[in-house]
Write a structure and sequence with these properties.
cell division; alpha+beta; Arc Repressor Mutant, subunit A; 46% helix; two-stranded antiparallel ribbon; 192 residues; 3-stranded antiparallel beta sheet
Amino acid sequence: MSEQAQYSHLSQSDIRNAIEALLYVAAGPVSPGQLAETLAIKVKEAEEQLKALEVEYQAQRGLRLQWHAGRVQITTAPEYADLVEKFLGLDATQKLSRAALETLAIIAYRQPVTRPGVDAIRGVNSDGVMRSLLSKGLVEEVGRADGPGRPILYGTTADFLQYFGLGSLGELPPFEEETAEETPKGNGLLKD
C-alpha cells in the first residue's frame, strides 16, 4: 500500500491528532511541509489542521503552538510555567536584567539589527548584554549588513518566544514611540 493510500482514509480529526503526535515527539520546531510529507497530505491541509489545533489549544488547555520562522512546535502554556518548573525540579527562571530586557525589546522590534544599531538606541555600549543574550539563546546572528565592515545582524530566537510565552512575534504588543514630553527626565537608559 502506498503512503498516499495509507493515510487517505484518515478523517480531518485523525489528521489533526496525527499532527499533534508528530509535534509532541519532534525534537524541535518543524515546518508544515515536513508534517504534510510525513502524512502524505497537502501542505495547505497540514496548515489548516495546525490552525484548528491552535484554536483547540487556546480554549483553556495547558499546551500552545508556538510559531517561529515558518516552523511550529508544541509548548506548555505560559500561565503554567511555574508549575512545570516546580514539577521538573528546575530553579526559577533566571531573571533578566533591565538592561537585557531593554536590549531584547530593541532587537525584537527592530530585527534584524546590528549591535551598533542597538547601542545607538540605548546610548550605551551593549557588548556585555549582547554576549549574555547570545549565551542564553534568546538572540542569534541572522546575517550580515551590507554596510562598511559588514556588521552582524541579530534577531530573536524561538527560545525568546518561549521565554516570554509568545506564539509568534506577531503577538508582541504594538510598538509606540514616546514623544519628548512623555520621556521621563533623568537617566532613562540602563548601562550593562
